[in-house]
Amino acid sequence: MNHSGSDTWDLIVLGAGAVGENVADYATKGGLRTVIVEAQLVGGECSYWACMPSKALLRPAAARLAVQRVAGASAAVTGDLDVAAVLERRTGFTSAWDDANQVSWLDSAGIDLVRGRGRIVGERTVDVAQADGTVRRLTATHAVAVCTGSVPTLPPIEGLADAKPWTSREATSITDVPGSVAILGGGVVAAELATIYRSLGAEVTVILRGRFLSRFEDFASDRVRASLEESGVHFVTASPSSVTRAQDGRVHITLGHNVEPIIVDEIIVATGRHSATTGLGLEDVGVSPTDLRVDDSMRVAGAHGDWLYAVGDVNGRALYTHQGKYQARAAGLAIAARAASTLPSDLTEPWSDHAATADHAHVPSVVFTEPEIATVGLTSEEADQAGLPIRVIDHDLGSVAGAAVRSDGYAGAVRAVIDLERQLIVGMTFVGQDVSELLHAATIAIVGEVPLDRLWHAVPAYPTMNEVWLRLLEAERYA
Amino acid sequence: MNHSGSDTWDLIVLGAGAVGENVADYATKGGLRTVIVEAQLVGGECSYWACMPSKALLRPAAARLAVQRVAGASAAVTGDLDVAAVLERRTGFTSAWDDANQVSWLDSAGIDLVRGRGRIVGERTVDVAQADGTVRRLTATHAVAVCTGSVPTLPPIEGLADAKPWTSREATSITDVPGSVAILGGGVVAAELATIYRSLGAEVTVILRGRFLSRFEDFASDRVRASLEESGVHFVTASPSSVTRAQDGRVHITLGHNVEPIIVDEIIVATGRHSATTGLGLEDVGVSPTDLRVDDSMRVAGAHGDWLYAVGDVNGRALYTHQGKYQARAAGLAIAARAASTLPSDLTEPWSDHAATADHAHVPSVVFTEPEIATVGLTSEEADQAGLPIRVIDHDLGSVAGAAVRSDGYAGAVRAVIDLERQLIVGMTFVGQDVSELLHAATIAIVGEVPLDRLWHAVPAYPTMNEVWLRLLEAERYA
């Protein structure tokens, strides 16, 4: 423990994932003495069991596929992926699940660390159950920020919990690739894990109830599903009635009385996540652990004295690492500003440094499948439901010279959702190979509220895939 | 010839490259009857002898290199590029130098075509020397737009012209790869051709006088040069005194009295380009063919009656296909608006549809080398010279998680040039693998004049390379 004197800091942060680290960092830069409490690895879910390992696992197959699509280079690729090397690459990106580097970073950033499980026991007071069995009491002069993230939700299927299902944690930590997996769920985690496991040679069955990747524009989700099916992934629309792990170790998934059960080596649950608030003691300070509501500075509604913040996945606003870090910047700056009395407790100006305004209708997300989906802002359906006077402009990405050069027979599409009244783009969705890096242009256009008639002067370099911007603006002009 | 009646149109366009096609298209959509005059292939330099073939030739090596940098996938690449297939891919992208598709497009766009060499013989009057030896006179009711592009400049080196040097045309049209080439010049064309020829197995020597890629930020140019050198390209800083093609067909390049001559199979001249105005008759209407000055609607200064426009490379404003097309949109819309008397002849409002305002300080460009350079707006040197109160923010692109995931040991860098007074980014330069598609976000931020405090809310998706935006903004905040 690095601090001296009493166990009092200006700010106590619960959870040392990317979000907690950023709250602590921004508050510390703002002059506050900050401590972070973590029971597991410093660095959190994203570093060890989510974004980093999954993206490290996805990239080799994507790179190999990209070169196979370029005449003149494709013949150079004669081999398969080296599965052991892919897994080793993944292990490198997780630092072999060792948090020494992240601990060093905390130290260099001037943030104290207390290892153990934190529980709020009163206003600005946290008890930490430490590994040695002792409890250490921490007090904060200004604020406590809950940054404990989220945990996978296990659906209420008979036998599932006892069948030792994998969550995204186990699924991204494998040391051997099972021969077959069933993935429960049809969201982003299911889509990325299906892509990974299929690319590593497993038989993959996705069991889902509704539409695949239903949060996204249909044209994008449909292409990803078709591509997965083409690669050999099976899709089954069903609600399992029971799951059991048999004596031989295999998992039997019963879908109904007259349906053959699905038998696989492992079952992966990817049916959503919920706030990780169990045991935090929120009830004791008058806050519902299942309904954490925050304002745009991430301050929890209902806590007496305005000292409690909830940042990142735990508040349920937008379950993405990047958006959690964004909230963390706003919260860290707001906590420091309120401690310095330069920010009123009840006010956060939209688009100010202290407000995560973009959470509401400006959230970017990428699905690292093949093809990739990248989207920001409102889908056409969401814009419609919001009552905006919209025009939807679609364009075939493959018809853009930059895409054709990148990949023979490039297949992709882009949709822009335009608010006709304000003459602004309010949503954009891309689907295709390598579209993940196209997204930020859309994010800047939407968040920056750059009018269409000014976007007209933002010339895309030729021949890049970004020339699709010109095509969309031309289509809008001559619609 | 598709038109009926007399040889009179509203607009005559000289040159059917991408720029001429766009002027004609926008004017036609604006209600004007338009004819385009072309002596060579409809589609122009970019389609057949520049952007398209060069990018088609560059992509296979880039794709192969990308996969070689990803552990788990690299072992799958055992072979070299298939040079014949690379050349065939190139030929596909040039439609085997057949313009039938482009002619069909003109037809579908309602644009008439007259094949032959056009010469301005008076106000709104063009004589076309046709292949059959006849001359056809065309007259325009409103305007003539010169879109004849540019041609390579041959430096005044003794013997060079007689040594049958290649220009970018011959260099991108090869059917066999020479064993060795010397490239005269150190600009973008030289850099891309050196990359292509080296990747196809040729010995490459770049002979340049000044700094390599001198228009770009040093940190970017230096990386490209180092990478080319590492791949085996030789750089020689010298001014050849003479060039001769010997009896055996090889080219001898003499650099000075006491220096061994360079002997190569072919010499490629890439020492710049100048306006293609020879024989256009500009002198006859009082316009200097070597000093074509235009306003922001591309109207030529000095032509009596304001009927003459010069669009694209020919006006020397910004020699890029994308920027020429941008000018073409402004010019086509301006010509149509002036014909309809809805736009004053002497006025083009900045950032309006009729002004190519972005030409001045908002031009994007990409160098498709390995690594790529992508830049938009002002370099730090240009901003300094313009007297702006700037801060330069640099960031290592390889330290961004999205880059590390993309490529093991990713090497790259980004610079943002910030106008401290206006709190805007005025220039950005990226260097690294696959940065070409990162550029448009910068172009939108700069052209859209999105203030730094709003860019703060444009969240880059994690983990993408675009997260470098966050790092730059954090560095700026805590500089």
At a glance:
Chain A is an alpha/beta fold.
Written description of the protein model:
Two copies of one chain form a homodimer. With 479 residues, chain A is α/β, with parallel strands linked by helices. The first copy, chain A, folds into three domains: 8-43 and 99-151 and 275-359, FAD/NAD(P)-binding domain; 161-271, 3-Layer(bba) Sandwich (FAD/NAD(P)-binding domain); 371-477, FAD/NAD-linked reductase, C-terminal dimerisation domain (Enolase-like, domain 1, 2-Layer Sandwich), CATH 3.30.390.30. Chain A is 29% helix and 23% strand. Chain A has 14 helices and 21 strands. In chain A, strands 1, 2, 3, 4, 5, 6 and 16 form a seven-stranded mixed β-sheet that branches. A five-stranded antiparallel β-sheet of chain A has the order 17-18-21-20-19, with helices on both faces. In chain A, strands 10-9-8-14 form a four-stranded parallel β-sheet. In chain A, helix 1 runs parallel beside helix 9 and helix 3 (51-68) crosses helix 7. The N and C termini of chain A lie far apart (64 Å). Mean pLDDT of chain A is 95; it is low at 1-5. At the A-B interface, helix 3, helix 4, helix 9, strand 17 and helix 11 of A face helix 3, helix 4, helix 9, strand 17 and helix 11 of B.
